[in-house]
């Protein structure tokens, strides 16, 4: 039994990645593709400027794109993946949830709202329980679940592994070296980035600092409470295609050795969901790893790569890396969809 | 009146940069070039694999290279610039100092020895006073002065500006995005770095952490004392040709506003030495600057570029950048040579 | 005595380069800046998104931008530099010429029209004589002169040098490796070009094939006749910032040796115009040169670099390179302006 | 029944690729690994600096490396893959052939010797018949078979397809844009190639010009005769990791339309060997394809990608691309090994 699913914003860069992941997915069947009003009514092949390195799946290419409204999407498509620009997402996701659709969204709007679960399944899948409150308060039959920003997803699983091992997180400094694909296909021009780096990505630092605390926070049955650690982020764009690399320094209430940290990473449990990798965190001994080009596809692009775990002046420091358009975007939404199905929300 | 100078290790990458800077220098005259025994006795043009984008100066090309020994260098060449591999520098610099030569060295050996001044002229030129102790203790007629590592030079002037403005530095986190030229011409292969980044540069982090404290420390007339701030560094290599970019977070005893920090940077005094830029620190308002390709040549490659000064979770954070082979290596040694002459040590 | 000049399309990428070249120019004074209707009436500083690595010249930043119409430009500005998109140039250049302005244009429209001189001053400055016919036939008081495409400018001077040396050109094959700046600031995204190359640049090949024959053709007093050589071009975009590199094979009626070809290049005369380099063609013996990053600035970016001259299966082959936004675009227009003044057309 | 095989020069870059391809190969079993005398006697894991992005196969890592001499390799290993530097290959391949081993070699030595088959199985597998003459003349029990240079392999299949379609080839001009991996792991430094291109690769042009004529030549039962077409090549290194892109112009005795050329490419038969792709030549309609990063892995890196087929001033021109370390090196040798087994030479 497969679940019929739709993609909101199917012609965009993440929309294309979603189709690439959903088409061969054993649990899902692509049954609806939406885009802007101009694209509605046309075959997907004619309106998508396809930029994925595998061809458009034959059947998907022939599907007729619809408008991005609840009326245009068939009722028997209970689960929708959303990769809309956040300004659009902010307008259209609510009507879909009101109309009874469950929306697994990669868009940044509403991520920090108190009754919207922001979820990495292996880290805080239990936050889905907040959907009861969401439905009650908002009067929705559907539901809205978010995955975090790609740069947040890269380092939060390592913090979760430390928390799981009983290591109390107090402060986190994180510097990111982010790939150009994170800005979308046209987001960074070649003139901006060849032989260069840009030490600023608009509003990205705030996402790492706030989303990470929500992800590691607790749901006590009535509300989501942020974790009390404090996080400071500094974000950079560098000339890599895919894979966000991050330098992390942590201060903790304990004084774990690098070996204990490596063990905490290696032993952090994954899930049996289709898109969950085993292990979740791949730990390198070589201090030169992880590297974006070599390691972004560990676990089919769904694992976290960590390395360089060492004593720091203030505690521990290490590096981590994840594939920003797989684990960090489209794959994150698909994985949340898998969890929503398994937990009975769809 | 020009000072006759020599270059130890003249055929190497930094040696070539030294020649490029010294040849047109109004205060210096190149009078000796040394290299390995195999190169000795040959015209410089025949033994240097010249890789600078300006041609070999005509007269330099015809100079005869000598061995790297005090006997081979004329006595009337009082000042020597050294850019030897640190293992070689550790062996040969001492004999030169014993023989009465003043050595301004970019090599990393001996930088942390207590009676060896580690100097950025605009920051701690007064540390040269320790040369009295050096000469007395070691019985040298000559002297040995070091400049710091290129990645250290990039961020220390910004810290010095804060200290100068009365802001008490307590902790510093610094992440570096370093250019490939920092590893020497053959140091990073293209297979290693295209579409990639490497989160490790051997022993580089320790240099930032220890050299910075020595540079900001005080000489009390008898000994050099480290500054008490604590520094944690994380170093990355990225695909840029020249220019090290650094993300810095500081915690201070005061609570300066970003505006106060920008003012401290902009008002930090430079020197009237030939190679000192005016201003020393170029402050950008645009949060996307500084960027390596756009800003590495501010102040003819001898200035520090700073930007993105903003409130951080823990204090202040900002970015800075310097040209690693000019301000960070050859230019740093030449500048130290200028100070040694001005202060009467040559 | 300086000539008052204007820039049509002053806010664009080439417009900015034109301002950078014209502001310090000893013969020209910037007296008019035009742009789109939305920008008209505002200070240049407020409407130009300045991307040149030197700052906006102070006085230029404060000039008020006007609309791109003859009425909006003062009458005492006789010479205009045009860097408009070709569709815009096709509409507005004619009214300016009718109104008496002399237009030196980098836009691709009208380049192949029979009474429009397409000029590289050192190659075919005498083609300006066709302006008599242009003025007579079109009833213009002004005049329209074009410079070729950046990729055409790179190899045509080498062909002209061979023709000057009496070597009869029969066939030319040319493959280009073009820098991203040739497509404008936003022309090539980083996702398209990092770790990649694109073997197609729309309509570029036809430009090399037809413009080159017009440039080497003759003006017999009444008409411009194309050179009879045949040219086949293949164009590629590669991940370089500036500098177009080209591989050239030629078949000739003679059988020149590589040494004769090198001599023809080296001895080809330059002009005494302000922006003409001396020599025009810089010849390298090292077969690995010219290279874009090392050699794009020879002759302040206005020279042609050539190297690798060798016997080929079919005749001679060699490589050449020029800075595409200096010699190949803005500098080309400025140089044509200098020639127009010297020849009395302004 | 698998064939036991060995790798000569197993620690090098191509040697590692060979192991990556041979380990999971259904027809081969790795039974011997040789390297320099210093490595002999040690486990492979300890002496290979492994740089492939998949891990060292467990069993291979534990194999003991031997010297590269016939005595050191077990007699029951009939087929050896050689990826030695050509100077080493020139010395050691002959003793192995004398001792009865069949050597499938990627090394450039001996490629043009008249009784050494230079083979691309899909193109000229029948050239293996020359082995009879080789064995007779040289008195070998073994045999020596070569695959061409990576840049040769990229364009020759397209020429073969035209010949197969009855199109008489007369002249070929080919410009290459080659990836850095073609020079080996340390072959191109990052300082040489970032934001740059190098219009020269030592002796590469001669390889394209001569190997191509041998490959398309005929074996008449007694000797290999070169094809009579004439080829001129110009080779460039560009900043791509993998995938050689080539621009090709052809003049033919017929006057084929671009459509006929595309058909000839698409219909050119592949083989049923394990590593032969189906189709051999993948034809793109989009003139911007093939591109190295997008298309180097077509046919698991063993196919040729072609596109941009268009009329040229002199005939037809098009672009082609192949993965230089798979189809162009290690994969080429493995494929020749498969053919040698199928044809009964092993």
Fold blueprint:
The structure is a homotetramer of 346-residue chains.
Chain A (H helix, E strand, L loop, with lengths): L2 E6 L4 H10 L5 E8 L8 H4 L10 H5 L3 E2 L11 E4 L3 H13 L3 E4 L15 H4 L5 H9 L4 E4 L3 H15 L4 E10 L11 H4 L10 H12 L2 E2 L4 E2 L4 E8 L6 E9 L5 H10 L13 E3 L8 H4 L8 E9 L2 E8 L3 H17 L4
Parallel strand pairs in A: 1-2, 1-4, 2-3, 4-5, 5-6, 7-10, 12-13
Antiparallel strand pairs in A: 7-11, 8-9, 11-14, 13-14
What is the subunit organization of this protein? Answer: homotetramer
Element order of chain A: H for helix, E for strand: EHEHHEEHEHHEHEHHEEEEHEHEEH
How many individual β-strands of chain A? Answer: 14
Low-confidence stretches of chain A: none
User: Beta-sheet strand percentage of chain A?
Assistant: 15-25%
What is the domain tally of chain A? Answer: 2
CATH class of the largest domain in chain A: Alpha Beta
Strand ordering within the main sheet of chain A: 3-2-1-4-5-6
CATH topology of the largest domain in chain A: Dihydrodipicolinate Reductase, domain 2
Main sheet characteristics of chain A: 6 strands, parallel
CATH superfamily of the largest domain in chain A: Dihydrodipicolinate Reductase, domain 2
Helical amount of chain A: 25-40%
Report mean pLDDT of chain A, rounded to a whole number.
97
Return the CATH architecture of the largest domain in chain A.
2-Layer Sandwich
């Amino acid at each position: 039994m497969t679940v019929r699913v739709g993609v909101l914003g199917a012609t965009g860069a993440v929309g294309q990645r979603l189709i690439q992941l959903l088409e061969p997915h054993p649990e899902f069947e692509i049954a609806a593709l939406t885009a802007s009003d101009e694209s509605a009514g046309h075959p997907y092949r004619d309106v998508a400027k396809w930029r994925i390195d595998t061809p458009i799946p034959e059947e998907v290419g022939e599907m007729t794109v619809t408008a991005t409204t609840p009326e245009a999407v068939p009722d028997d498509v209970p689960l929708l993946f959303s990769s809309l620009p956040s300004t659009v997402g902010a307008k259209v996701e609510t009507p879909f949830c009101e109309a009874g659709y469950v929306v697994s969204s990669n868009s940044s709007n509403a991520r920090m709202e108190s009754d919207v679960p922001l979820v990495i399944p292996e880290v805080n899948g239990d936050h889905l329980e907040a959907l009861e409150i969401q439905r009650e308060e908002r009067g929705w039959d559907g539901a809205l679940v978010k995955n975090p920003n790609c740069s947040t997803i890269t380092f939060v699983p390592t913090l979760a592994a430390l928390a799981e091992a009983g290591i109390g997180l107090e402060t986190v400094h994180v510097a990111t070296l982010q790939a150009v694909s994170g800005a979308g296909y046209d987001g960074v021009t070649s003139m901006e980035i060849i032989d260069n780096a840009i030490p600023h990505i608009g509003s990205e630092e705030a996402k790492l600092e706030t989303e990470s605390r929500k992800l590691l926070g607790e749901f006590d049955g009535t509300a989501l409470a942020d974790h009390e650690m404090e996080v400071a982020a500094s974000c950079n764009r560098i000339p890599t295609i895919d894979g966000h690399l991050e330098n992390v320094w942590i201060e903790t209430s304990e004084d774990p050795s690098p070996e204990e940290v490596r063990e905490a990473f290696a032993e952090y449990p994954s899930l049996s969901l289709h898109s969950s990798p085993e292990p979740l965190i791949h730990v390198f001994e070589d201090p030169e790893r992880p590297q974006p080009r070599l390691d972004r596809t560990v676990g089919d692009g769904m694992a976290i790569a960590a390395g360089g775990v060492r004593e720091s002046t203030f505690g521990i420091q290490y590096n981590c890396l994840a594939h920003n358009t797989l684990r960090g975007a489209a794959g994150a939404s698909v994985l949340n969809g898998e969890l929503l199905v398994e937990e009975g929300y769809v």
